[in-house]
Amino acid sequence: MKEIFERVSIRKFEDRPVEKEKTEIILKAAMAAPSAGNQQPWEFFVVTDRQKIKELSKISPYAACAEGAPMVIVPCYRTQGQRWPETVLIDLSCATENMLLEITAQGLGGVWLCAAPLEDRMEKAQDAIGNPKGLKAFAVIPVGYPAENRVQQDRFEEGRVHYV
């Protein structure tokens, strides 16, 4: 549970690769997420190619930080065969949060860069990973060893809690 209270968005990374073992456990955490009707609509693209990462850093005005990451994960969702297609963005949100928490647990840093539901960002991300058939890009997640030290803010606001 400590990762929930330690996770912060990291946008600056050391110039060193992320180990395959750490990458695999991050992806296992993502795939352990709940999904509506257990439809598990996700696919994950692990990008380490510098040119592809540069392309991903241009999906939005806020994605430039991806260029300095040694690895970027692009969670995508399947568009066909979903029992409840209206819930895939929720399913991917759960998987992405699990991934970010495991990134923190592994001593790494990352940030969630929005693609979905903004079609222009989704298309740019899909172009960068080769336009996989039947898949839509959900987000761009730069991952690496943090080159910045940030502390999470306490966001609890008692006034937003209502007991009924």
Task: Give a verbal description of the structure.
With 164 residues, the protein is α+β, with helices and mostly antiparallel strands. The protein has a single domain (32-148), classed as NADH Oxidase (3-Layer(aba) Sandwich), CATH 3.40.109.10. The chain is 32% helix and 16% strand. The chain has helices at residues 2-6, 20-31, 50-56, 88-105, 119-128; strands at 42-47, 71-78, 109-110, 113-114, 135-137, 139-144. Strands 1, 2, 3, 4, 5 and 6 form a six-stranded antiparallel beta sheet that branches. Helix 2 runs antiparallel to helix 4 (88-105).
Brief digest:
The chain is an alpha+beta fold and 164 residues long. The chain is built from five helices and six strands, in the order H-H-E-H-E-H-E-E-H-E-E. 32% of the residues lie in helices and 16% in strands.
